[in-house]
Amino acid sequence: METLVTIAMPVYNADKYLKESIDSILNQTFTDFIFLIINDCSTDNTENIILSYKDKRIKYLKNDVNIGVRDSLNRALSLTTTKYLARMDADDISLPNRLEWQIDFMEKNPLIGVCGGLYEIFGNKNHIPNIPMKDEAIKTKLIFINQICHPSIMLRMDILRNNNILYGVPFEFNDSFGPKISELEDFALWHRIKSFTRFENINKLILRYRMEGQNISYNKESLVLQRKKSFFKHILNELQIQPSSANLHYHISFKYFEQSRNTEEIEQFRAHLDKILDKNRTLNIYSQTELKRVVEEKWDQLFFHLPPKGNKYIKEYFRVSKKRKFSQLVYLSKYSVNNFFGRKQS
Questions:
Q1: Whole-angstrom distance, CA of residue 193 vs CA of residue 114
Q2: Which contacts qualify for 263-268: CB closer than 8 Å, 24 or more apart?
Q3: Burial class (CB within 10 angstroms; exposed 0-12, middle 13-18, buried 19+) of 143
Q4: CA distance 289 to 306
Q5: What are the start and end residues of each CATH 3.90.550.10 domain in the chain?
Q6: Label partner for 119 (CA 20 to 30 A): which of 95, 236, 310, 320?
């Protein structure tokens, strides 16, 4: 019987959790797979851990030089001959039925090209994110945020083969930081294939995603932000939008709004969101109904970053919104009470 799936796992200095991750794949209820482990020139005990396994399903590769996640994954793609590719990270845990459930789903749903699923974040904090499950919602959310957990996915290799698509953004980053800085390889892949296939997250918990000690330095964070800005400019250019610097910051994350000293940026961001809707109405890239829901959700999220900025920001938001939601008033009331008693105690 033909082997259906290859699991690709790039590894770099991951000896702390690597054995637990490998074991979670080898102990799957679905047992016929190729487990491709790519060691990206680790300098810790990673290689010894991998070589300690004698399981014939493991195919071990070691890069000659450190090339990063993107190019390691592209090396894996070039060696994958199976119908499906599944992803795994070296510090995560796949639950025992993961491959069985995903292969069963993909075999029964030939129009679905990318299958993710529910995942539990653990480590620094524990929770199961609320992610969209169906194609239109997943694709529309991609305008602002990635809603497919990369190490949880299984995809049809024919989509990549038939369209000559690899991991990586469809343009060169205009910097010299190389593969050590986030390449947004998964986010970019979903955008590149969204017109070729359908996405779905199955309603089953299939992965435990480790979030531990992943704080990055300010300097590195600023480099990642620069790449995100280039990437999201590319996404918005698809909608024929040239965003301002402020709108681009808020489009990526509202944490950058904390630096704002200008209430006019609130109205400007609302105009930016309305332009997204207007352009898509003509270009029809995303579901307009779903896009309107996602845009309004983004606008609502902005409000909850305003109370620490002061009343003038809240008043400007309500002026631009032309309405006040009950949930916003409740939050504002609770914030004001907590802030008042906090000041009294200090």
A1: 9
A2: 263/312, 263/313, 263/316, 264/316, 266/302, 266/313, 266/316, 266/317, 266/320, 267/316, 267/320, 268/244
A3: buried
A4: 27
A5: 5-211
A6: 236
Residues in the chain: 346
In terms of Cα–Cα distance, which of 217, 229, 214, 240 is closest to 175?
229
Between CA 207 and CA 149 the distance in angstroms is: 9
Does the CA dihedral 182-185-186-188 come out positive or negative? positive
Q: Are 224 and 248 in contact (CB under 8 A)?
A: no
- Mean pLDDT of the 22-32 span: 98
Is the pTM higher than 0.85? yes
Q: Distance between CA 9 and CA 26 in Å, rounded?
A: 13
CA–CA separation, 47 and 253 (whole Å):
38
* 11 touches 79 (CB < 8 A): no
Structural tokens at position 315: 């008043």
Side chain identity, residue 345: Q
Q: Are 113 and 159 in contact (CB under 8 A)?
A: yes
3-state helix, strand, coil split of the chain in percent (to 5) is 50, 15, 35
Structure tokens at 5: 């799936």
Tokens 């995100």 map to which residue? 228
Q: Could you tell me which CATH number the domain at 5-211 has?
A: 3.90.550.10
Mean pLDDT to the nearest integer, 177-202: 88
54-80 pLDDT, tens digit each: 999 999 999 999 999 999 999 999 999
| Both structure tokens of 213 | 């000690």
By the 8 A CB rule, do 67 and 1 touch?
Answer: no
| Residue for token pair 């129009």 | 111
244-262 confidence digits (pLDDT tens) = 988 999 999 988 777 777 8
- Output the six-digit token pair for 209: 């995603």
161 CA to centre of own chain = 23
